[in-house]
Amino acid sequence: MKKVFLLLALCFSLSFTANAQDDNGYKNAIGVRAGWGVQASYQRYVLPQNRVEVNLGINRFGFDAAGIYQYVFNIPSNTKGIFKWYAGMGATMGDWSFDDAKDEGFSFGIVGQIGLEYTFRIPLLLSFDYRPGWYFTPESEFDWSGFAVGVRYCF
After folding, report:
1. Looking at the chain, which runs of residues are DSSP E strands?
2. Where exactly are the structural domains of the chain?
3. What is the pLDDT of residues 109-130, one digit of tens each?
4. What are the φ/ψ torsions at residue 6 (nearest 5 degrees)?
5. Neighbours of 43 (CB within 10 A)
């Protein structure tokens, strides 16, 4: 009985994973996210309404890398594309460099993200989001400047 239940649970979870591409029209997206800096961006759906976004880039303080787990929600519309909004949390790290020597060094923090995106019928996604963060190192600081636009190729 336990083996049958385990097999059914496995099949059920695989059906959600396999269905991710059908609900969204794509499973991966790669492109650029730009705001106060520029980041290479990669998104991958892990479930039909959940995805992981990984960014690597440069900003006004140095370089940074971020990983965010996002929940994605459809917005009903009468357009030829797909509107969605998303929200999530993750972590970021990088290198900070100011004129003041005490503020230089490795940075680590947590970030939240909320945004809107539009996927065209061609494999192109446009997004606008806000990603504020709380940085623990090199000094404890809240960063409000997290607005960005994104352009990604979907596949």
Report:
1. 28-34, 38-47, 50-58, 62-75, 82-96, 105-119, 124-130, 133-137, 141-143, 147-154
2. 2-154
3. 999 999 999 999 899 999 999 9
4. -65, -40
5. 26
Residue 144: partners with Cβ closer than 8 Å, 6 or more residues away: 132
Per the listing, tokens 């269905």 go with 19
Residues contacting 11, CB < 8 A, separation 6+? none
> Measured between alpha carbons, how far apart are the two ends of the chain, in Å?
40
Specify the residue for token string 């995805």.
51
- Dist CA 152 CA 123 (whole Å): 8
- Smallest CA-to-CA distance from 70 within 130, 104, 113 is with 113
Class in CATH terms, 2-154: mainly beta
125-142 tens-digit pLDDT: 999 999 999 989 877 888
Backbone angles phi, psi at 26, to 5 degrees: -155, 165
